[in-house]
Amino acid sequence: MVSVLIAPDKFKGSLSADDVARALERGVLHSAPHASVTRLALADGGEGSVAAACSGRFSPETSTVTGPTGQPVNATVAMHGRTVLVEAAGVCGLDVLPDGHKAPLTATSRGIGQAVRCALAGGADTIVLALGGVATTDGGAGLLQEPGAVLAREDGTPIGPGGRGLGELHTVDLAEPHAMLRGVDLVLATDVDNPLLGPTGTATVYGPQKGATTDDVRELEAALGSFVRRLEAAGVVDAARLAEAPGAGAAGGLGYAGTLLGGRVCSGADYFLALLGADELLTANEFVVTGEGSLDEQSLSGKLPVALARRARRHGATVHAVAGRCTLPAERTAAHFRSVQALTELTDQDCANDPALSVRLLEQCGRTLAARWIAGA
Fold it and tell me: What's the distance, Cα to Cα, between the start and end of the chain in Å?
């Protein structure tokens, strides 16, 4: 009996990772009913991280926190033992903006801080922040304030929300959140390596996606720069170095705030593969199917399908990929995947905006894979 591991990422904006895996499984079993199939929904630290964790051994817990514009949102975290996973996109992401109205200058990460505080109150000793897809560019100020950081104007009152509020910053004190997080492993899972400031920084690169105009980007960049200088003036000796570190610009600067609190930046893809037990499953399955919405140049820098393929190679497993679209020539994918199928090659319709069509095409891809590579095994 052939053992098959189906382990995709989400098809962003269309299907969850679990939806993708189930559709591929139906297709595989149609053409190879004798196969033993295991599904593993994956995530890399962005949207879908909580859902992927909860499709495995984690359990969901929902609470009400402050959303990016100050209105309450119901956010779900994933819990397993004393580990809590917080998905930034589900708390202060673009998808939870009221009516989709962007607030590039004032969107806050305060809800992330509330989720962290709740995790600490529940006895968590490992808190994983899945960084990606946020509406904020506040340098993680909201995250810092909720566990007790002092970020105040010259008159002693708290600064306003968002990156614009950082422009008012005069007094900084991080003693209380440092004390609260002592002994806690704070993991900052991201595959973004942008620094906080500069031409590749969070405001310049990601601000426009969050609705920032050219003038807004300049204001945000200046406010974030002022934030770093105020931290240095307050005696945070590593403030400038941490701002330049890869990942500091993740999630509007949440990466920076996390490292100020002693957190460690790690590859979202590799962390989640380890967290979800991918190595054990790769040992037990000789045939692997993975995929994501867009297999492109960024994928080769270590996104989930390629990270999984590298691990699979060490275990002697053969990996095939299915993507919503693939912009890479065969010679670029051959080093990682035995075969690649793209949904866009199977239809002239817009499957990215038609989940039902995507499901049917994924089932077709599963049938094709099984008929060609598994049925006769």
Answer: 8
